[in-house]
Specification:
Blueprint: E1 2-4, E2 11-13, H1 16-21, H2 24-27, H3 40-60, E3 69-76, H4 85-100, E4 107-111, E5 116-121, H5 124-137, E6 144-151, E7 154-155, E8 165-166, H6 168-184, E9 193-197, H7 203-221, H8 225-235, H9 240-247, H10 251-261, H11 263-275
Parallel strand pairs: 6-9
Antiparallel strand pairs: 1-2, 3-5, 3-6, 4-5, 7-8
């Protein structure tokens, strides 16, 4: 199993001996990538070795950065088919800015390459609520997919003009968004989000969170534009009376729409997550 360490000319074997000899400061600046020119069985074995290596890396420098965070990678669904990609990117930034008022971010959204964005959250609960709000707040015809990864982040080059980070949180977020792509184009066309964590104690948590994301994304994907606006409103704490005024309908119609669309259920689900203090 050969892994390539970024910034070094030599290849590194994913062996316990190398891990024991590695310094945390150098590990933070390393990334392990899979070779793509191998048979499927060998690639599967390599991926398993990669996950074990990531777990070891977490343990190696946990004492330097003991608090894990949630890294988020965002990309635009069918971006090449949009007539106004600049406008779509602007609407995503505006949606995140509006959601940011309800949940603080460890590091606010910033654009990276192409149609991708990144952000970092203190807790998983904050990331889940923010991504729910962003999908609901986006205008009709614009949608996003999200990869959420729990782990450690570290600055690669503090002198670089842009935000350049590395760490297990980003590797997990990348794996999560690739899984979202795979499932979206397979058995779950409504899916827009996935969560990955290397923490052994969070194995059950990841399954529960992804079960929630499957149901959440199915519900939001099926909503009409008005149902999305109303659901976003109640998640932001706007009263049904005020929502009725904005939409020029009755308060009863707002209540009925929220029940039919699943908006009320989504609100209740996030309230339960809040009670559980999902970190």
């Amino acid at each position: 199993m050969t892994f390539i360490r970024r910034g070094a000319s030599n290849t590194l074997e994913a062996s316990p001996g190398w891990l024991r000899g590695a310094r945390p400061s150098s590990v933070r600046r390393s990334r392990c990538i899979l070779r793509r020119d191998l048979p499927p069985l060998e690639r599967s074995r390599q991926k398993l070795a990669q996950k074990r290596l990531y777990s070891c890396l977490n343990k190696l420098y946990a004492y330097e950065m003991p608090n894990s965070v949630i890294a988020l990678i965002v990309d635009i669904v069918k971006s090449r088919e949009l007539s106004d990609r600049v406008g779509a990117q602007r609407s995503i930034r505006e949606a995140f800015a509006q959601a940011h008022g309800t949940r603080p971010m460890h590091r606010p959204l910033w654009p990276t390459v192409g149609d991708e964005f990144q952000a970092v959250f203190h807790t998983l609960g904050d990331a889940l609520l923010t991504t729910s709000l962003v999908r609901l707040l986006l205008p009709e015809g614009v949608d996003c997919r999200f990869g959420l990864g729990r782990g450690i982040t570290a600055d690669v080059d503090e002198l670089a003009p842009g935000a350049i980070q590395d760490g297990t949180a980003w590797w997990n977020a990348r794996e999560a968004i690739e899984e979202t792509h795979h499932r979206e184009h397979g058995t779950d066309p409504y899916l827009r989000s996935w969560f990955v964590s290397d923490e052994a104690k969070a194995a059950g948590e990841a399954s529960l969170v992804n079960g929630f994301l499957l149901l959440r994304d199915a519900s939001i994907s099926a909503m009409s534009p008005r149902a999305r606006r109303l659901t976003a409103g109640v998640l932001l704490g706007v009263s049904q009376t005020e929502l009725a005024r904005r939409e020029k309908i009755t308060q009863s119609a707002v209540s009925q729409s929220l029940r039919r669309s699943g908006g009320s259920a989504l609100l209740a689900a996030h309230q339960e997550l809040e009670k559980g203090m999902l970190r």
